[in-house]
Write a structure and sequence with these properties.
The complex is a heterodimer of chains A (298) and B (325). Chain A has 298 residues and is α+β, with helices and mostly antiparallel strands. Chain A has three domains: 63 residues, no CATH class; 111 residues, Tetrahydropterin Synthase, Chain A (2-Layer Sandwich); 43 residues, no CATH class. Chain A is built from eight helices and ten strands. In chain A, strands 6, 7, 8 and 9 form a four-stranded antiparallel β-sheet that branches. With 325 residues, chain B is α+β, with helices and mostly antiparallel strands. Among the domains of chain B are: 84 residues, no CATH class; 116 residues, Tetrahydropterin Synthase, Chain A, CATH 3.30.479.30. In chain B, 54% of the residues lie in helices and 20% in strands. Chain B is built from nine helices and ten strands. In chain B, the strands form three sheets. In chain B, strands 6, 7, 8 and 9 form a four-stranded antiparallel β-sheet that branches. A three-stranded antiparallel β-sheet of chain B has the order 3-2-5. Chain B starts with a helix and ends in an 18-residue tail after the last strand. Classes of the chains: A alpha+beta (298), B alpha+beta (325). Chains A and B meet through helix 5, strand 9, helix 6, helix 7 and strand 10 of A and strand 7, helix 5, helix 8, helix 9 and strand 10 of B. Strand 10 of chain A pairs parallel with strand 10 of chain B.
Chain lengths: 298, 325
């Protein structure tokens, strides 16, 4: 009896602290504490702090992550409206919004992610299937169309996830978009052809541009020369005109004298050693001779 | 202040320890000593330091109570308070869509992306970030580096999907970096992650081996084009100054011709005008003088015959000297 009492005492002294500590529970800032009494949810602690509960077997606490969680659904291939295969890698950010509902429907994170993947990929498939590939891959007006598609996906998936699983779907984002493996060779071949075309275009452009510059320079040179010629001729003509005027002004004062003097000057040039000159006896230069002779003859 | 706050709370473990001692081992002074020492050690374990580049966040029973800067601090030991220390000034790095190479020399190819004109390229972007708000960083999101990487990946994909490949390879690099940084930051702010991006840098843009050569050829062609154009320009730069020089000398020659003509005219007429003045004073004398002077110059050079043509008479006997040699 005594031994029984003693062993009972030992049992109590070991169990009591355990039971007492199980009455206190700390709910961290990063988590929800869901208090369940034999599986039934009795309280959800959304704010962090120290909580008191009934000891262990009566009440249990299930901790659920309150933070923003990221999850990458499996990569999947979709067919766009214009029958192009697109491989989409998505990213989902989510948090638990309604711990009770979450616990009741999915309970654990792996299961939740599985369900989320179903919901999200179904919506992605629906939205991508109703849009042409150019809404996702295009050079102009890309931003608005892309945003619109993503917003449609989120809008529909968000409502579903919240209602069904108590999950607040933060974002569905397109992490990566690629083409199916069997299309890659085609893409690379096309890229190569495209580059070849561009290279040829550049080279001929260079040729053309260069020729244009040369031709332009030649034209400009011709113009410069022509303008200079015109200017030079004009200057010369002006010189001639001025000179002529000066001559006319001066010689006009006595044309006879000018003619006389100019004739004499011309003789000086015209008559040289090879010239034979027949002078009439009554030439002016000889008049004096004649005059001399006259008295002798008479 | 931390110590003051600690004192009332430290009462909690003490009575329990005392009660246990009284019941099981009534009299053992050395055991009391050990208990006192271990209690002191327990309380002292609440002292911690925060380095200059760090910040500490203290949680009491799971609730964030304090954010502490550098220095020595006190918090209640486990299980009451918990402290997390993060480096807030250190810049951290993460690769977008790829793991950063561990060794320095390794080259990262990054993630494969489709451009707006359906070209496949690989872009390696590295994001650098600092912790702006330690408690948000620690408690709001699950795995910050992973989140940053994934979100940036999606922004990068979205950006490049709207760009032609030429832009991505040439002028668009800055734009991509800007947009990845701004877009990722915007999303991280929306998630209240407490993360501040400092930069998004493109480390490398690589092309598949089968098309790299073709892209290189385009770059060469572009260089060829520039070269051709420069050749044309240098031809023009050589030609035109020469043409201008020639044109100028042409004009100058004409100007000097003009001046010469005018000067000549002036010179020639000056003599005539002077002569005229003389002539007007004595016309006959001057006229004769001019005539005779000219004849004097001319006649010595020429062979001369004097004929009496008009009257058919015999030539007169002249006493003229023969032409000078």
């Amino acid at each position: 009896m005594r031994a029984l009492r003693r062993s009972g005492l030992i049992c109590v002294s070991i169990l009591l602290p355990l039971v007492l500590t199980s009455c206190f529970v700390v709910v961290d800032v990063t988590e929800y504490g869901v208090f369940t009494r034999f599986g039934r949810v009795v309280r959800v602690a959304g704010t962090p702090g120290l909580y008191v509960k009934r000891p262990y077997p009566l009440e249990r606490v299930i901790r659920l992550d309150k933070r923003l969680l990221t999850f990458k659904p499996p990569t999947a291939e979709f067919l766009s409206e214009d029958k192009k295969n697109l491989v989409l890698h998505t990213l989902v950010t989510w948090r638990i919004a309604d711990p009770e509902r979450f616990l009741a429907t999915v309970g654990t994170r792996p299961l939740a992610e599985e369900r989320l993947a179903d919901v999200v990929l179904r919506e992605v498939g629906a939205v991508v299937g109703s849009a042409s590939a150019s809404a996702l891959i295009s050079v102009d007006g890309h931003e608005s169309q892309f945003d619109q598609l993503m917003r449609r996906i989120i809008g529909q998936a968000h409502a579903l996830a919240l209602a069904d699983y108590g999950i607040d779907l933060g974002d569905v984002r397109l992490r990566q978009l690629s083409l199916p493996e069997q299309n890659r060779a085609n893409v690379f071949a096309r890229m190569q052809a495209e580059r070849g075309r561009i290279a040829t275009k550049y080279r001929s452009e260079g040729e053309r541009e260069s020729k244009k510059i040369v031709a332009e320079a030649d034209r400009e040179k011709t113009q410069i020369t022509a303008e200079a010629y015109r200017e030079a001729e004009r200057t010369r003509a002006e010189g001639d005109a001025v000179a002529t005027r000066i001559y006319a002004d001066a010689f006009g004062k006595n044309p006879q004298l000018y003619e006389f003097r100019r004739t004499l000057q011309a003789y000086e040039k015209i008559l040289d050693a090879t010239t034979t000159l027949f002078l009439p006896a009554d030439a002016d230069i000889l008049q004096v001779l004649e005059a001399d002779r006259k008295p002798v003859r008479k | 202040m931390d110590l003051g706050a600690a004192l009332p709370a430290s009462e909690t473990p003490a009575p329990r320890a005392g009660g246990w001692r009284r019941r099981s081992v009534p009299s053992a002074p050395w055991l009391a000593g050990i208990l006192a020492v271990s209690l002191a050690a327990y309380l002292v374990s609440g002292i911690f330091t925060v380095a200059a580049d760090e910040q500490a966040v203290v949680r009491r029973f799971g609730r964030v109570t304090m954010r502490l800067g550098p220095g020595i601090h006190y918090r209640l030991p486990w299980p009451v308070d918990r402290v997390d220390v993060v480096k807030t000034t250190a810049v951290m790095k993460t690769g977008v869509g790829f793991d950063l190479p561990a060794a320095e020399g390794q080259v990262a190819t990054g993630m494969e992306i489709l451009t707006g004109d359906t070209n496949i390229i690989s872009v390696a972007i590295v994001i650098q970030y600092v912790i702006r708000n330690p408690s948000a960083f620690l408690f709001e999101i699950e795995d910050p580096p992973k989140l940053i990487g994934s979100v940036a990946e999606s922004v990068l994909t979205e950006t490049v999907l709207g760009m032609p490949v030429d832009e991505v390879l040439t002028t668009g690099r800055l734009q991509i970096q800007e947009r990845v940084k701004a877009g990722t930051q915007g999303l991280l702010d929306r998630y209240e992650s407490g993360i501040q991006l400092t930069s998004a840098n493109i480390m490398a843009i690589t092309l598949d081996g089968s098309v790299a050569q073709a892209f290189q050829d385009v770059a060469n062609a572009s260089a060829d084009r520039e070269k051709k154009i420069n050749e044309g320009r240098s031809y023009a730069n050589d030609l035109l100054p020469k043409a201008r020089g020639e044109a100028q000398s042409m004009v100058l020659a004409a100007q000097s011709y003009q001046q010469q003509r005018v000067a000549e005219a002036q010179g020639n007429t000056t003599r005539f005008v002077e002569l005229l003045a003389e002539y007007q004073k004595a016309p006959d004398v001057t006229r004769s003088r001019l005539y005779l002077e000219a004849m004097e110059k001319v006649l010595p050079r020429v062979k001369k015959y004097v004929i009496d043509s008009e009257h058919g008479r015999n030539p007169v006997q002249l006493h003229l000297t023969p032409p000078q040699p």
